[in-house]
Amino acid sequence: MLVIPLTLLLHLSEPNQPTENPTLPPVATFSIVGYDPETGQLGIAVQSKFFAVGSVVPWAEAGVGAIATQSWANTTYGPNGLKLLKSGLSAEQTLERLVADDPGRATRQVGIVDAKGNVANYTGDACNEWAGAVSGKHYTAQGNILAGEAVVKAMGKAFEETEGELADKLMAALFAGQEKGGDTRGQQSAALLVVQAGRGYGGFNDRYIDLRIDDAEKPIKALQRLLEIHKTLFAR
Known about the structure:
Blueprint: H1 6-12, E1 29-35, E2 42-48, E3 58-61, E4 65-71, H2 77-86, H3 91-100, E5 108-114, E6 119-123, E7 132-136, E8 139-143, H4 149-161, H5 166-179, E9 189-195, E10 207-213, H6 219-234
Helix pairs in contact: 2-3, 4-5, 5-6
């Protein structure tokens, strides 16, 4: 008979327990989470000096919301946050619940938009400087280890002033943030995720745009190239 030590059982039953001293590098990055009231699209765009940032930061579900989790990212914020949004909680209520239940909250950074366009963001006191966020109508932009507040302010301005689909607004925000200095460590990866009901391949899911650059010298430019290819192949 297999005997599992009690200490291991306790460990396995508490998957959200953070380490007191994180050994992984922080997902130091800048991201923007947004909503388009005309189409119902929800999405996230992100860039970081971090390998394959798209595998960590962006989470979204059509008709529910979009979430960016970063810094010493707690990736349970993604699926758990979407469940909370789906239950009827607003972006702010969902954020409050996620942060309250996380002992490692001081190291976290997160941005959320719900399916009504309400937004919320949080930057823990232990996030590496410069860290912070700005929010506006239907968007929140956040980042850590940035050149300064000008990065997120430029992102918000670009989102507000750019015409076109949500993807265009999100990408414009990334370019604007990078022009203001972006992640002070440099560039490495970027990702763009946009969801809309029935807009996935064949209409079978909501994953309208899901593009990633995992390792490149200029990942935002590379991501823009992929977006243009996507438009050519799948626009309708």
